[in-house]
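Lecture notes, unit on protein representations.

Consider one protein chain, 163 amino acids long.
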Amino acid sequence: MDRLLHELLNDSAVVLTDRNAPGTPANIDHIVIAPSGVWIIDSKNWTGTIRYKSASSMSANMRLFVDGEDRTSKVEAIYGLVIPIAQVIADKSVTIHPVVAFIDGEWSLAAIPRLLRNKPYQHGGVWITPPRMLIKKINQPGPLDAQTVIRISKTLDEALKPR
């Protein structure tokens, strides 16, 4: 994932890799600061079929399954890093996008039409996506100018130490 981010992101984006998450023992695989906002990325190398579907035919509650195992809690955990990162940035105008990006795994047949239309899933505010689709989203224009990207990058780099 690190290689793809460095190769395919616009020059205006800054990538911080493998950082300690503030106030938790967790790590953050990648943080990207770009004109489109701040992206907290949890890269997953899980194998098996990736399905985003309701827990049962009687439920509207959507869940993420990988190789038949419910992994929704992992998606929800990345959302828990939004507030600590926002507190470090200390600028409420900056949008923070939590993401679970699948490096491996096979998307279910039901997901293919959606992915072909460049429409990743979103669960409770967390994007669930393959890496190249994520990079397209990050590279979109956004409200942050170059100076703001650099300022936020420096702030996060100082506050979130590499592991």
